[in-house]
Design goal:
The protein is an all-alpha fold and 145 residues long. Helices cover 66% and strands 0% of the residues. It has helices at residues 3-25, 40-47, 51-64, 76-89, 93-97, 106-120, 123-129, 136-144. It is elongated. The N and C termini lie far apart (85 Å). The model is unreliable at 26-31 (pLDDT under 50).
Amino acid sequence: MDMAYRNAVQLHVANQLEYFLEYNERPRFQINDDPFQLSERQFVKLFRLKKDTTIRLINIVEEHSAVPLRTSVLNATVQVLTALRFYASGSYQNCVGSNVHMRISQTSVSRCIHNVTNILNLPEVFNTWVYFPNNIQELQEIRNK
């Protein structure tokens, strides 16, 4: 093996190790661009809710979330925005996770959707936001409105 080739291989290996070390030092779960800095119109287009409603939802998720056992747990804001983006897009979880605003793995997207959906389906949350008529008269009144 000639010396130039050997040096090139060593340089390549050194570059790969440097990249690996830099990659592992970066925070893995983050909001890259703050979606709350978007205009209201752009925010609604992405997440299908207004900013103030989203903030209320984040507070509900924080209130009903279990105490995290790991330090790497995604915060309520990331979980809610990830779930809302999935609900809004009806897309695949990989596409949601690689979104400009949230770069997280597919498994993390899945956990966010699962957690937020479970919290939204809690009776004390669900019954606050959703009302079904109890009898025919109430149903008729809603239809007439």
